[in-house]
Amino acid sequence: KKKKKLNKHICVHMYKKKKRTVVGIRCSDGVVLGVEKLIHSKMLVRDTYHRIFTVSKNAGIAIAGVLPDGRQLVNRAREEASSYKRNFGVEIPGKILAQRVALFVHAYTEYWHLRPFGVSCLVATCDENDGPQLYLIDPSGDCRKFQAIAVGKGQQPSRVQLEKIDFQKITCKEAVNKVAQIIYSIHDDVKDKPFDLELSWVLNDSKKLILLCSFVYLVGALKTKKIHVWTNDRHVFVPQDVLSQAKDAGVKATQDEESDDEDA
Q1: Short-list 201, 257, 195, CA closest to 234
Q2: What is the 3-class SS of the chain, one letter each residue?
Q3: What is the average per-residue pLDDT within 138-167?
Q4: Over the chain, what is the mean pLDDT?
Q5: Which residues are within 8 A (CB) of 110 and not within 5 positions of it... i.e. 6 or more apart?
Q6: Could you name the domain of life of the organism this protein comes from (predicted)?
Q7: pLDDT > 90? residue 73
């Protein structure tokens, strides 16, 4: 049993070293999640590979670590959310969801015939009573609430940048660019494989989200109009135009850092 326990600790330590960077920011109007998603093959169909998942109408989970283990936690979270909705008729509060998933994770550290989950996950939720919330669940089953947090290989430099943010003022639209800048800045193009940026959010005031959409009228003219998108505190991936702007901001920030280093 002692040998098995030692192997568990070694296993978790190795998982921690391998997991990619995940960043979450709780904003004035919601929560933003961002993931450094490595592309292991040029032939990969990217829509089939995700590290951010929706587990209920108003909650999402971002996975850092072993992806199959992460999917197991996602399925557990979906079961908890579905059971709560079926029993009480409302969406599960973020605090309860995070605590129940954390208890499930902790149970796998208690028995010799089970190994701990090789993941840390960020849980982003938004509900009427508590508003936007961000939780971290680590492989031990510890669950904590944060204004902003980063986990994974680049967590230390990421947390230094997160500490400079004014969380009372920053909006989700601003945080999306900030998350992109952090992830692009900590990625090592020489040592690491190419990556794709994955971003999602839960908006507390969804009326602020305005998308530009093109409509083709019967006369055949192509026009552009502004429309309001109402998501009702739903967890969704950020729109493609917002994602493109965030990627551009991340690339620009990296180029600025490189030019500053050359000048120095």
Answers
A1: 201
A2: CHHHHHHHHHHHHHHHHHCCCEEEEEECCEEEEEEEEECCCCCCCHHHCCCEEEEECCEEEEEEECHHHHHHHHHHHHHHHHHHHHHHCCCCCHHHHHHHHHHHHHHCCCCCCCCCCCEEEEEEEEECCCEEEEEEECCCCCEEECCEEEECCCHHHHHHHHCCCCCCCCCHHHHHHHHHHHHHHHCCCCCCCCEEEEEEEEECCHHHCEEEEEEECCCCCEEEEEEECCCCCCEEECCHHHHHHHHHHHHHHHHHHHHHHHHC
A3: 93
A4: 84
A5: none
A6: Eukaryota
A7: yes
Tokens representing residue 167 in the block: 């969380």
Domains observed in the chain: 2-204+232-263 (3.60.20.10)
Token reading at 116? 């701990």
Token pair, residue 176, equals 């999306």
Residue indicated by tokens 């510890």: 142
Phi first, then psi, for residue 142 (nearest 5°) are -70, 135
